Amino acid sequence: MTTWVVAEEPCHDLAGNLCTLGIKGPTTMVGFNRSILFRHLRPHRLALLTSVAIAVAGISLETNARPLSVRVNRWLELRNISGSVDFLRGGQWRPAQVGQRLEAIGDGVRTGAGALARLAVDTQVGFVSVSENSSLRITELYTTPRGGKVTELDVDRGQARVFVRPFTNPDSRLEIRTPAGVNGVRGTNFGIAIQPSGRSSLVVEEGLVVSEAQGVSVPVNAGFQNFTVPGEPPSTPVPITEDPGLNLLRLERQRREGQSTVVVEGRTAPVNLLVIDDETQEIDQDGNFALELPITDQRIEVTVVTPLGKMQVYELVVP
Known about the structure:
Blueprint: E1 2-6, E2 23-28, H1 34-39, H2 43-64, E3 76-82, E4 85-89, E5 92-95, E6 101-102, E7 108-111, E8 116-121, E9 126-130, E10 135-143, E11 149-164, E12 173-177, E13 182-185, E14 188-194, E15 200-206, E16 208-213, E17 216-221, E18 224-228, E19 238-239, E20 247-256, E21 259-267, E22 273-276, E23 279-281, E24 288-294, E25 299-305, E26 311-317
Parallel strand pairs: 11-12
Antiparallel strand pairs: 1-2, 3-6, 3-8, 4-5, 4-7, 7-10, 8-9, 9-11, 10-11, 11-14, 12-13, 13-16, 14-15, 15-18, 16-17, 18-19, 20-21, 21-24, 22-23, 22-25, 25-26
């Protein structure tokens, strides 16, 4: 029979929980005369003891349902920044500085047009490079009881590249979450790019990454790429293109309701990001785009960015 017994002094159980009110357990009743024990407990003390036992048992069950973690110093440190980069802590954005550390859930960085940021993961496990017009936040950062390092990052827009050495601890893992799904790694070199719609592209240069969405896991090996649409499972991997090329199909001035606009149509690799005048534009799953933009200048700057961070800038002259 399992019950709770009275301890003479406060103690800690194996999980490190304080034995509240001198009660420790659960444990098996051995060598106690139950009538003697309960005869010396006043009714109100017995009621309190029962309440505490139930409460502690509930906490224990809830704790056991979650992965245990060890409180140690974990962080991502800003090693290099270029252009407009902001640092998030405590819900407030401030200009970032080299040496600042993302240490708590919710800490993050964001980059403006033409900006870059590089973060080092603690214990020299690797780096995360964040391209322009991108946002990254910490969702999990802890150490398991067996010394494994768990790092979960959320990238909801833009492009990021990850360089991570192979993990030696089986409990260690790194995950990049996007609006479309999760990319889990144990040591690799890969990049992601996220369309305004949330569609996420993945390109793996070295190692193995597993794309997960809608209960489906798709392994993506080195030399392959795929994409994930929100609400759908990951696509079948195909060989890497890594081509920032732009095929311009139409560039035409129009006048509508007294205002001049320009129609831009073209195609690029479907995993790429298309940035026009510092704003990321949506492209479809085949890489096609058709845009009508206001004319603010006679030249339009178009930047194509691959998931691995390769960029090509094009200057279009409005006819």
